[in-house]
Amino acid sequence: MKTARELGLIPQGRLEPGPGNAITDVAGVSVGHRSLRGEGLFTGVTAILPHAGDVFRVKPRAAVEVINGFGKSAGLMQVAEIGTIETPIVLTNTFGVAACTEALVRRAISANPAIGRKTSTVNALVCECNDGSINDIQALAVTPADAEAALDAARTGPVEQGAVGAGSGMTAFGFKAGIGTASRRMRVGKRDFTLGTLVLANFGAAGDLVLPDGRRPDPRVPAGPERGSVIVVMATDLPLADRQLQRVARRAGAGLARLGAFWGHGSGDVALCFTTADPVEHEPATAFTTQERLADGHIDIAFRAAADTTQEAVLNALCMAPAMPARNGRIYPCLADWLMENPSP
User: Fold this and answer.
1) Residue 243's domain spans which residues?
2) Which of 169, 264, 268, 271 could bridge to 135 as Cys pair (CB 3.0-4.6 Å)?
């Protein structure tokens, strides 16, 4: 399979991608997948680790933007209130949230036996999309062991995309979709930074997709109400305050809108942005800490990177996922196949 960029869908922009064009271009960030296959099963788990250390002890600063809140994720409320994340970020299907939450809690307790006894509890962070059109979601197939496997599989470097991990059974705009990622380099002053995005794409009504060149691919499936979801996870090494992180996360909406999304009533659209700069210690040595912060007058470059990477990551999810039958027998086609059959004039 080829990425959207390899298929000529991504025009020359003002910002260049990182070396891997992935969220893992941000130093220290790693991604792992666990894909489940079986009779009626096509689902899985994807894990994003902000750094290689103990996330509970060294908490990346983060913010969340709920674009449309028809979703069943865990942990977002505390991120919005406190401005940090305490566990890796795990993505799965809607009915897998409890199993993945248990895995994250047990993993954190194993590394920090004082959790819930001598120190605070831990805020497990799990986000979801409904893959029930392809996967038998009532089977409750995702287990804590599957989440552990995704966490253990996390690696820096290339990220597998398409119908893999949590993206296994996802669809978007009437096409097969799943996991996608992209990155952009940012020059601020005399320093270089990166913003990378990973999406779990499962949204958009059939026939609404708009490509960067203006074409509207026809998946040849019946159009229906917009009831999908999308989870957008952004990582950056740019030093941003919590308010700025939320403003950057909000720009995921611009990338989704470029694609033709309008965030329907039944759509769960969530964007999370964290920075690896100046993390927060669980037990700081002093009462006051100093954190570097970007001047607001320079933040537009991060806004642009957020919108661009969200758009490209979704297109990668669509292009890298092969055609697949739904549980009702209908076929979700592959966008890459449509592009080959309908070359740009």
Assistant:
1) 23-341
2) 169
